[in-house]
Amino acid sequence: MCRVFGVSRSGFYEWLSRPESARKHADRQLSGKIKQAFEDSRQTYGTRRIQDALDPQGQRVSRARIGRLMRQQGLRCKTRRRFRATTNANPSLPVAPNHLNRQFQVAEPDRADVGDITYGATGEGWLYLAVFLDRFSRQVVGWALSAWMTADLGLDALQMARWRRRPGKGLLVHSDRGSQYASGRFHALLKDQGYVCSMSRKGNCWDNAPAESFFPTLQTELIHQRRFETREQAKQEIFEYIEVFYNRQRKHSTLGYRTPAEFDTLHRKAA
């Protein structure tokens, strides 16, 4: 080996017995903390979020160093696949104006909720998920699962948001023009509660970008990483992802690297 690499035998044995440098020792210790933060994030955090996760531990580290140590350990974030929408408009059903009008920054919680529907495959067939997110904290405040994409799917998700948050009259409820959001029962609930219905313009996904951006995250971090044998298994894991991980553990850069639940709590304490 010494001949192949062009080094002396004495030099090799000296290197072999040389004590670990302070820098290498620090890198080895830091690598363990980086890997732990990466695994705690379900392999979703990149250098910026890991940097933020290490800061409370007194580890002030550059992103370049974190990136180098991640590459050495073969740590790579989950990547997104192409996402397809699921809701379809029914021209015979009524639509509402776009009151949200891409005003995605909201000053207080329970002022505007945005909703959408996605799906995932299981060994028993498709499973559909409807969600509503509070625009202030990005928190999933209501959600519903079903084996069929019925008119009640969006209604059930909104009902959960209503029971959980108890928003007052004037709540802006925004969605696309899918038939689930244009149904008579859905609009009857909005009218009964004094909520304001808002819908995206025809064929314009950017009008509901905050809701639609949640689903690629869910698909990337959970659905595309798992093989669900049954719908019940998928329901349990989606429940755990939303209520435990996404709402309470996953840091959001737009929230100052706080979780949605933490961001909401801090606002209420300051109010």
Average pLDDT value? 86
State the distance separating the first and last CA atoms.
Answer: 69 Å
Strand order, largest beta sheet: 3-2-1-4-5
> How much is the radius of gyration in Å?
24 Å
- Helix fraction, binned, reads 40-55%
The assigned structural class equals: alpha/beta
Residue stretches low in confidence (pLDDT < 50, at least 5 long) are none
Q: Could you state the order of secondary-structure elements as H and E? A: HHHHHEEEHEHHEHHH
Q: What is the assembly state of the chains in this entry?
A: single chain
Task: Tell me the overall shape.
Answer: elongated
The number of distinct β-strands equals 5
Largest sheet: 5 strands, mixed
The helix count comes to 11
Amount of beta strand: 5-15%
Itemize the secondary structure elements and their pairings:
Layout: H1 2-5, H2 9-17, H3 22-40, H4 47-54, H5 63-73, E1 112-122, E2 125-134, E3 140-146, H6 152-165, E4 172-175, H7 179-182, H8 184-193, E5 196-199, H9 209-221, H10 231-246, H11 260-270
Parallel strand pairs: 1-4, 4-5
Antiparallel strand pairs: 1-2, 2-3
Helix pairs in contact: 3-5, 4-5
